[in-house]
Structures are given as structure tokens and as C-alpha cells.
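ok trying again, last paste got cut off:
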Amino acid sequence: MSELLMPKATAVWLVDNTALTFEQVAAFCGLHDLEVQGIADGEVAVGIRGLDPISNGQLTREEIERCEGDRKLRLSLNAPSTKVPQRTRRARYTPVSKRQDRPNAIAWLIKNYPELNDAQIGKLLGTTKSTITAVRERTHWNTPNISPQDPLLLGICSEQELLEELRKARRRQEREAKKAEREAARKAAAKLVAQEAAAPVPPETGAAPEAETGAAPEAANAAVPAPEPRPETTAETNAAIAPPAKSPFGDRPGENNES
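nice, full thing came through this time. structure:
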């Protein structure tokens, strides 16, 4: 939301150049009614030169005329045609008298709040990552004389800023823990699927039902053909067909001559 530039100077111009009421001018400029009345009487804002809100684009002539016709109306600030660039946040400034205490504050934060990363510590104390790394790894040139001290007591940062960074660090840890759990569950599921795919399939075994068990021998017997009779040899066949040959010496005694 845009704000009015130089409210008192704008109020001086509106009082001198328009027929607006004190209440309308006060509501537009963010002043008290009596303060606007003091401007009109020459008791307030003495020596302040009026600022034309029409020339700087914060108010239009039509808007002034609209409110001059009805005392109940209030002026509306005109939206700027150009976007004012936002001021970027700069690094924290640490007074020269307290800069020598920053290594002690770094050591205190590293010891008591290990969840804070280097970027957060640098933001709180206005120091660089190389200095934080040197204190953490005990390679700082003044390591023997560094003793952890609370940065709040040293006046380098405020309690609200420290609590805000701690909340951010804990939320980051929670996100990382949930991500690790999801990754572990995914790996366990993939391992289980791989084990099931590699396991051999056991053969299907089991006794047949009783109804099928009784019918199986009969089906087996019906499937096996009956053995064919052994064919007789040629000699046996001829002996059965041909009559017995007569002896040239005649019939043997005791034999019956059937012929």
C-alpha cells in the first residue's frame, strides 16, 4: 500500500488551495483535526512549504472537486503509476566495539544450538561462513582466547531473531526426518519386491480328494489294454490239424483203431 509523501506539507497545500474541511484534510494526511486547524491559523507547520499532491501524482483534481461538493466524502490516495523498487535487505551491521565478541557468540551458538546452520548463524551475528567454519573447526587465529558467550547478553542479536531462526531450523529438521522416513520405506518396499521376484516357486503338492482317489485306479485299469493271447507256433498248429501218421509195422498192440 502506498503512503502519502510529506503529510504536513501536503496538508499546508490543501488548506491554502482547496475548500476541503479540516476533517477531510486530516483524514487524508493522517493528522488530527486540531492540528490541521492550527495549520490554517498559522500556529502549526510554520515555515513549511506546501507540497502539491496533484503534481506528484498522489491526488487528482477530480478527486478534490468530488470531495469539495460533499463534506462527508473522503479523499482517496491515487495509486502510483510506477512501481517503487523494494529495498533489499542488507547484511547486519555490527558495531566495531562488538566485532571482537563475534567469535565468542559463534562458539556459544554452535555449542547450544547445533541445529542452526552456518547461514543462520551468519545472519544472526553479521559474520561470514569462513569465520564460522574456522571457529567450528578450531582453526581461528584467536582460538585459545575464544570462550562461548551469549549473543543476547553481548547485544549482537535480539531474542526474537534467535527464536525465529530456531523455529526455521526445527522445521527444516522435521522435513528432513520425514523425507528420510519416506526414502527408507521406499527402499524397504523395493527390497521386498526384489526378494519375492527372486524366490523359487514351490511345486504344487497335495493329496487328491477322496472321490478322485477311488476313481483313479479304475481309470488307470481302463486305460491299460488287455494282453493279447500268445500266438501258437507253426508246429503246434500243424500237429493239431494233421491226423497221426500210421506206422509201417502196423498198429501197436493195445492201441484202439478208431478208423
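cool. The longest helix spans residues 159-198. The chain has a mean pLDDT of 79.
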